[in-house]
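Lecture notes, part 5. Sequence design as translation. It can be helpful to think of inverse folding as translation between two languages: the language of shapes and the language of residues. The source text, in structure tokens, appears below.
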């Protein structure tokens, strides 16, 4: 695939890493393992799976460090949480092959999820506290937009980001991926994550430091974060699980049904709901699926001993890409990733079931929905964890996908 819009749990130790803060110079991190170690130090997480229960027990004592009110926490500026990362593909050619695909472009394992967590801990850092009482987890990937199809394999990549909006217990983080070309860093990818703060045991919401915009530009960014929150609330109330389809939606669905109704049978009385015909150059939606299964091992756990969100995103993206590739019979490029809601944490040892479905097509564009659920073999229960929406563009025009049922 052209990209791996995944959040890698770790990067090779040869990866040079530099972090800078707007207030004071942050210590440099030569690789992702040191960033992960820094997060473990902040949280007090275990380095070995066998010690994870004891480590989580020790975190309970941090409850006393939680703020009783948001007003008790010092406000922060956007530049206080600013960090940046360099992936030196240009200056360290020996690491390039680790990121190449068969088309000689980069399948960049972006580090956005882990990066977002570190940015949030930078925003909420208290100088007198060695360990943070907060458990910061990803609630939502609001948007990932790509600015170019190809990532060059011989040019440095830079990741930047900062907290852009703060509620009572949640933070929006804006992050950017840029690549060095002709002496300038050009935009490649933009991402917006919503992170939530929880208590040390990750059971209840916890307050975070307020954010103060310092310029008209920052005020506009903050205002957009507030609008994004309102849109998410509005979108959740419009779910089909809570509200009936609108009149416009019902008409669209019924028009699709009527246009695929097989009326060639003699007599009006012989036509039924099951008498359907596939239009030319079309594919039934039920024939545009792929499925996958992953066993969630301790290797993929995050610092809170749940399965790392980036692992879930990577596996979903890879299945989505394969679904689009199979459907279009040519190489697809990712255009956008939208609305990844982390509904339920995934426990170590779970079976992760993934289902990819082409749900809409238009000319060269393919919309793929990937449903992710966990299966507990002991209780035989299924729970949805995420629903991913990927927009791809194919090299060639693709057939029209057509639903066969109202569902």
């Amino acid at each position: 695939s052209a990209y791996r819009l995944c959040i890698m749990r770790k990067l090779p130790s040869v990866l040079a890493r530099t972090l800078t803060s707007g207030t004071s110079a942050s210590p440099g991190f030569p690789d992702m393992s040191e960033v992960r170690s820094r997060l473990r130090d902040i949280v007090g997480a275990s380095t070995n799976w066998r010690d994870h229960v004891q480590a989580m027990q020790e975190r309970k004592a941090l409850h006393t460090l939680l703020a009783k009110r948001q007003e008790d926490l010092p406000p922060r500026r956007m530049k206080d949480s600013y960090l940046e990362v360099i992936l030196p593909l240009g200056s360290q050619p020996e690491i390039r092959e680790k990121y190449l695909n068969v088309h000689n472009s980069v399948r960049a394992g972006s580090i956005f999820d882990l990066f977002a967590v570190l940015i949030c801990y930078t925003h909420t850092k208290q100088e007198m506290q060695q360990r943070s009482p907060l458990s910061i987890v990803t609630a939502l990937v609001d948007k990932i937009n790509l600015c170019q199809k190809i990532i060059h394999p011989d040019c440095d990549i830079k990741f930047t980001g900062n907290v852009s909006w703060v509620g009572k217990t949640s933070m929006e983080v804006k992050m950017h991926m840029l690549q060095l070309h002709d002496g300038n860093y050009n935009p490649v990818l933009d991402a917006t994550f919503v992170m939530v703060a929880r208590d040390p045991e990750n059971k209840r919401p916890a307050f975070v430091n307020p954010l103060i915009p310092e310029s008209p530009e920052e005020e506009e960014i903050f205002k957009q974060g507030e609008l994004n929150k309102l849109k998410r609330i509005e979108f959740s109330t419009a779910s089909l699980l809570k509200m009936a389809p609108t009149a416009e939606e019902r008409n669209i669905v019924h028009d699709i049904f009527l246009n695929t109704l097989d009326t060639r049978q003699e007599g009006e009385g012989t036509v039924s709901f099951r008498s359907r015909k596939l239009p030319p150059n079309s594919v039934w939606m039920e024939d545009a699926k792929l499925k996958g299964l992953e066993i969630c091992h301790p290797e993929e756990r995050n610092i809170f001993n749940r399965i790392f969100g980036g692992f879930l995103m990577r596996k979903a993206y890879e299945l989505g890409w394969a679904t689009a590739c199979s459907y279009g019979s040519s190489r697809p490029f990712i255009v956008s990733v939208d609305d990844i809601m982390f509904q339920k944490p995934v426990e170590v040892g779970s079976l992760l079931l993934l289902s990819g479905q082409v749900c809409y097509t238009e000319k060269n564009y393919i919309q793929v929905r990937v449903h992710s659920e966990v299966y507990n073999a002991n209780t035989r229960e299924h729970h949805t964890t995420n629903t991913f929406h990927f927009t791809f563009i194919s090299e060639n025009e693709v057939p029209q996908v057509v639903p066969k049922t109202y569902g």
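The translated text above is only one of many valid answers, since several sequences can fold into similar shapes. The two ends are 31 Å apart (CA to CA).
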